[in-house]
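Field reference: sequence -> structure
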Amino acid sequence: MAAAERPRGGSRSNCRGRPFQRAGLAGGSAAHYLRRMALPRPARPSVVWADLRAFMRDRPRHQWVAGLLSVMIPVGILLAFYTQSFMQAQPRPQVIYVNNWPADRSDDEIRAAQQAAVERERAVQAERQRQFQRLEKQAERLGI
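Structure field:
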């Protein structure tokens, strides 16, 4: 490779003869912005406090109201979730009905009780069917 074809600028060169040009960066003496930037000196707390007071003094009232609302709404939502996490739903008491039968009852008494239960269930089912038929007739009258 001839000396004229070798890239100038060492390993930082992306393009022949023009360092940083391909990347869209300035090269040569204009590359001062590519160096590390020094950190700002820490400010005294009194200066920071004075700057904050001057900033707050220049705000109009509607910006304070909007700022307060924009902080309080998320705080309220988070507070609601936090308090709700401690509330546990109490289960309703479960009522269990127990039939007390005499130990010496006969098979005929058992069959009669079962038949009476079946008849009660059929009566409830027939009443429910009658109510649905009545609703269906009303819906037909309304054109539904």
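Note: Residues 45-83 form one domain.
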